[in-house]
Amino acid sequence: MRTQTKWSAALVLTIMAVLAISACAPAVAPAPTPIPKVPVSTATAAPAAPAPTKPPAAPASPTPSPRPATVKYGSLPGVFNAAAYFAADKGYFKEQAISLEFVDFRTIAELVAPVGTGQLDVVGMPLSTPLIAAADRGVELKLVAALSVSAQPSNNHTWIMLRKDLKDSGQVRSPAELKGLKVAIPSQGGLGDQTILLMLAQAGLKADDVEMVVLPAAEQAAAFANKAIAAGYTLEPQISDILQKGLAEKWIPISQYYGGKVQTGIIVFGPNMLTDQDLARRWMTGYLKGAREYLKTVASKEGRAEAVNALINHTALKDPKAYEPMELPAVDPNGQPDKQNLEIQYRYWVDGGFYKGQTTIDKITDLSYLDYATQRLGKQ
């Protein structure tokens, strides 16, 4: 019994030792769960269906080129057309696929009829009774933009000139002393006619106190030389030509009778332009671009030479030196006519009984073409 007890005690001691050792050993991490393998097929996989694609965009239509056209521009030859001359020489009408043809006339009255018959497309001229009367007769025409302004102190391109011998001798010292003498106007019913009448009225004279003769500015130099006229309403470049020849002197700037500033030129569209909106808009865009560039150019000595070249190309005065003292016209950078000044000119004709029709400035004005050009080029 004793032997059995010893074995049992030994067994118990052995078990206890094992348990003690197990308690002191670190815990063993559980074996990871095996990831089942996915069988790989040896067959070739079918290609994936392509993603749907958008049809290719249609190529953009090219911008159509402007339709080529020839536009006939009628006017009296003078520097009040400077902006139009400059625009043409700089190629701004060509940019619009327009070939501008200048057609010179002697008087305003000669200008109006060809507009109504379609022989002229555009006219540059001062406001006049022949123009307004034509609208009364049903001629389709519109005042569409400003062309030129004669203004103090340095843009007086239109003057009343006095024959040199009369001034030097003191025979004529004021307009009142023109009584009984001959005074030239370029056209009847135009700005020159009106200005001379204003001058006489302020001097206390009537129209029949002097002998008014119609004599285009280009012909006044010869008349002064022959002492056929005492004074005349004259515009550049004829003024500088007369001065260079020593025949007459600048006497009174016409802006004096209009508060220091007068609209000497407007642009008028005839039926050919008014029935072709695209052409009219393109023409106005080329003109306005040129007018703005002209204003910038004449502000400097170098630029002025370029503007003078355009005048030499389009007027009878070819001597560059004759242009040095010349005052060049101003023009609104947005082409806007001076409505207040034009209304003053218009009211003179109406109130004086020179015009008795029904047409008004508003009725013959259409600035929509100018608005289009301003929108394209930006307002200044």
Question: What is shown here, in short?
Answer:
This protein has 380 residues and is of the alpha/beta class. Helix content is 37%, strand content 16%. Helix 2 packs across helix 10 (277-297) and helix 10 crosses helix 13.
Key features?
D-Maltodextrin-Binding Protein, domain 2, alpha/beta, 380 residues, five-stranded mixed β-sheet, globular, single chain
Please provide a written account of the structure:
It contains 13 helices and ten strands. Helix 2 crosses helix 11 and helix 10 packs across helix 13. By secondary structure, the chain is an alpha/beta fold. It folds into two domains: 199 residues, 3-Layer(aba) Sandwich (D-Maltodextrin-Binding Protein, domain 2); 101 residues, D-Maltodextrin-Binding Protein, domain 2 (3-Layer(aba) Sandwich). The strands form two sheets. Strands 2-1-3-10-4 form a five-stranded mixed β-sheet, with helices on both faces. Strands 7-6-8-5-9 form a five-stranded mixed β-sheet, sandwiched between helices. It is globular, with a radius of gyration of 45 Å.
The topology string of helices and strands comes to HEHEHEHEEHEHEHEHEEHHHHH
CATH architecture level-2 label of the largest domain? 3-Layer(aba) Sandwich
Low-pLDDT residue intervals, each spanning 5 or more residues? 1-51
DSSP E strands, number = 10
The rounded distance between the terminal residues' Cα atoms is 131 Å
What does the largest sheet look like?
5 strands, mixed
Structural class given helices, strands, pairing? Answer: alpha/beta
Instruction: Report the C-alpha radius of gyration, rounded.
Output: 45 Å
Strand order of the largest sheet: 2-1-3-10-4
Number of helices: 13
CATH class of the largest domain: Alpha Beta
In percent, how much strand structure appears in the residues?
A: 15-25%
Quaternary class: single chain
Percent range of helical residues:
25-40%
CATH topology of the largest domain: D-Maltodextrin-Binding Protein, domain 2
Dominant shape: globular
CATH superfamily of the largest domain: Periplasmic binding protein-like II
